[in-house]
Amino acid sequence: RTGVSDTSSNVTCRGERESNGQKSEISGAVTLTVSQTPKARLTVQTETSQIFRGETVTLTCDVQGEGWRYTWQCGDKQQNSDEEEFKSTVQFKQSCKCKGCRESFCSEWSDAETLTDSYKPKVTVKPQSSVFTGDTVTLICDVGRSTGRTIYWYKNFKRTKAGSETETLREVRVSDGGRYVCSVERETTQSQGVMLTVEERPKPVVRVQPDGRVFRGQTVTLTCDIQDTNVTNWSYIWNKDDSEIHVSQSQEYRISSVSESHTGNYSCTGRETGGSRYSHTSDKVTLTVSESSEAHALITGVIAGLSVTFLLIFFLALLWCCKHNKGAGSPSFSTDHQPQNI
């Protein structure tokens, strides 16, 4: 066997018997080519120039040749795959590298690529992003760390204020609604936008059924009607004489067998179920409970009967007086004053 160079060499062989030293002919030459161990190359594909926490990046491992099975290592974790692409979700700063293996041979590890996560600012709205006029709203710009730098606030793509990470809007108006974003001083990355919706605070209307005179023992239904709002689920708060008496998911408040104690001024307020919004309080509606209809009819009948009796007595007395006066004023003729015949 001849020496082997760094690149390639010709190799031949022959046999020799130990017993008599007889040698065979030299074999034909075989060229042995020794290639340098390939080194994997790792590339990182991202949609933007910065990698933000929680984003998914695509890692590609490129090894010369075919038939490789790839080993990925990011931080302390290793994963094998037949695919040359590997997707990783970035949660913190970490170093990644790869290599390819086939049969018992492996390439060299690639150079490590460090994935440095950048924290993208995030805007949150408290108590919620849909509010009514007059509410107080707090905008919070979460930058993931304390920077000590100025926070810029934008509304509908126009910078509105330079301040701190918390921005409070008091007594909001409809015009305060819009798309809000924030950014950190000397950084180009803006947060995703958050829409703030401000609606006029609705005012309920209370309807009473029956809407006429209510008598003791009847059933009365009060309905709290709230219109012109995007709230889909309300809780209804009922008040009597400014004191809370009932809360339910139904807009109807039913009073069975009313009595005089139910007489009073009723109003309602809507509260968003699972939210923070309240409506105005409705105007008050007065509920007056009278005697029962039967008693009312009896009393009315008695009064009517007494009235008829009184009128009858009055007319009889008047008739008697007329007759008496007529009898007293009639002319009478005396015989003493009759004319004499001559």
UniProtKB/TrEMBL annotation:
Region of interest: Disordered: 1-24
Xref: Gene3D superfamilies: Immunoglobulins (2.60.40.10)
KW Membrane (keyword) present: yes
Gene Ontology cellular-component annotations: external side of plasma membrane
Pfam families linked to this entry: Ig_2 (PF13895), Ig_3 (PF13927)
Residue span, Ig-like domain: 38-72, 121-197, 202-286
Biased composition range(s): Polar residues: 1-12
A GO molecular function held by the record: transmembrane signaling receptor activity
Keywords attached to this entry: Disulfide bond, Membrane, Signal, Transmembrane, Transmembrane helix
Transmembrane segments: 297-322
Keyword Transmembrane helix recorded: yes
One biological process term in Gene Ontology: cell surface receptor signaling pathway
PANTHER family reported in the protein's UniProt record: FC RECEPTOR-LIKE PROTEIN 4, IMMUNOGLOBULIN FC RECEPTOR
Protein name: Si:cabz01036022.1
UniProt organism field: Cyprinus carpio carpio
